[in-house]
């Protein structure tokens, strides 16, 4: 069963610079390690149960070789980064990936087997998982992961610390489309979930279908007016563009960003009545990073 959004993958040109920028946003971000045979390395900002992954190319030749393999999710990574980077994939967590792959195939979804994945952290901890990616007939910016290393051990890969911005958990991740109803029908079949009705999103100025996956939401959206979703669609085309995090203190997130040289983050009011604010792509490595919570 799909249990939650596991993480968002944000691709950056240079890992150290990406870490520095997300630290300015108030995320406690640390090097995560290398992906053997992939030519990439990453950094991690852990929340309660999910995390942000910053991904960069470590060895261009190795990465090019890896991207040429059939079914590789690394295809065109260099081009994506050169075009401005940002959120490339949203990872959906499974508690039984082999069963979920079989169920997807039963719904006519083209998806890979559950394949082994791993990386070695700077401290020498070996992390292992299973991963499945969608095939050419179902090209969506999501993939599926089942962690084989327990959460407590995975947390040990980075120093224990609370985020200075007060962020605790991913609330929702958004994927922009030029036809939210049609796109949501495809996601419904892939995820094996009912297609949600469209509702108005007042911060991203979009009609949105929100799939509730455990405690996290996956929003498939179509802009109805000028705003972040419309900007993202014009700049990059359909795909992931925003991750929204719950914080224990909007004031803390605002203060930390300003104290570290970032401009004031734009604010808006959600259709729930909650106040939210957004770090824009120019300060969040090509992504929109949102915060919602009490003052």
Structure description:
This protein is of the alpha+beta class and 295 residues long. The strands form two sheets. The protein has an eight-stranded mixed sheet with strand order 2-3-4-1-5-8-7-6. The chain has an eight-stranded mixed sheet with strand order 10-11-12-9-13-16-15-14. The longest helix is centred in the middle third of the chain and has 12 residues. The mean pLDDT is 94.
What are the SSEs and their pairings?
Layout: E1 2-11, H1 15-24, E2 30-35, E3 40-46, E4 51-57, H2 60-67, H3 77-82, E5 86-94, H4 97-106, E6 115-120, E7 126-133, E8 142-147, H5 151-155, E9 167-176, H6 180-191, E10 199-201, E11 206-213, E12 216-223, H7 228-236, E13 239-247, H8 250-259, E14 267-269, E15 275-279, E16 288-292
Parallel strand pairs: 1-4, 5-8, 9-12, 13-16
Antiparallel strand pairs: 1-5, 2-3, 3-4, 6-7, 7-8, 9-13, 10-11, 11-12, 14-15, 15-16
Features:
alpha+beta; 295 residues; 2,3-Dihydroxybiphenyl 1,2-Dioxygenase, domain 1; eight-stranded mixed sheet; 2 domains
